[in-house]
Write a structure and sequence with these properties.
Blueprint (H helix, E strand, L loop, with lengths): L4 E6 L8 E5 L15 E6 H5 L6 E8 L12 E5 L9 E6 L2 E10 L2 E5 L8 E3 L5 E11 L6
Antiparallel strand pairs: 1-4, 2-3, 4-5, 5-10, 6-7, 6-10, 7-8, 8-9
């Protein structure tokens, strides 16, 4: 089955100053706790999510090949082209004229682009392919109101 993941790439506007309120209390995912009625700090999402502004892009995902990595159709990925790849990084790769998002696996018998959906098979990268790791996925932004 052909993998169906398309990406739309956007450059972030890091000139904006988007400071949001950051509450000093943590949020319980179990039993609710009393709300704090003061704000400890401000949080700027640009500063939190973007280490290298000139090398960072937002990418909108279309497809289902990365479902088990919690990357869904319509999610926005924060991609840093200046970060170094680590073992099992999720990357934006350029492969034979198309961009794709996959986990990169390096083994003795080669390099593989691993989808996170059992419907799809890993792609073994060969020397005949036009292949380049374009950037490292650092964050996933999702709209939970659609669930």
């Amino acid at each position: 089955m052909k993998q169906k993941t398309k990406l739309t790439i956007f450059k972030p506007d890091t000139n904006t100053n988007l400071k949001l309120q950051l509450f000093s209390s943590t949020i319980s995912a179990g039993f609710p706790s009393p709300a704090e009625d003061y704000v400890e700090n401000e949080l700027d999402l640009n500063k939190m999510m973007i280490d290298h502004p000139a090398a960072t892009f937002f990418v909108k995902v279309k497809g289902d090949s990365m479902l088990n990595a919690a990357i869904n159709d319509g999610d926005i990925l924060v991609v840093d082209r200046a970060k170094n790849m680590k073992k099992n990084s999720i990357v934006i790769a350029f492969l034979d004229g198309e961009f794709t998002v996959k986990r990169i696996i390096k083994e003795r018998n080669g390099t593989f682009l691993q989808p996170e959906n059992p419907k799809y098979k890993p792609i073994k990268v060969t020397s005949e392919m036009d292949f380049k790791v374009w950037g490292i996925v650092t964050y996933v932004i999702k709209n939970l109101s659609s669930f």
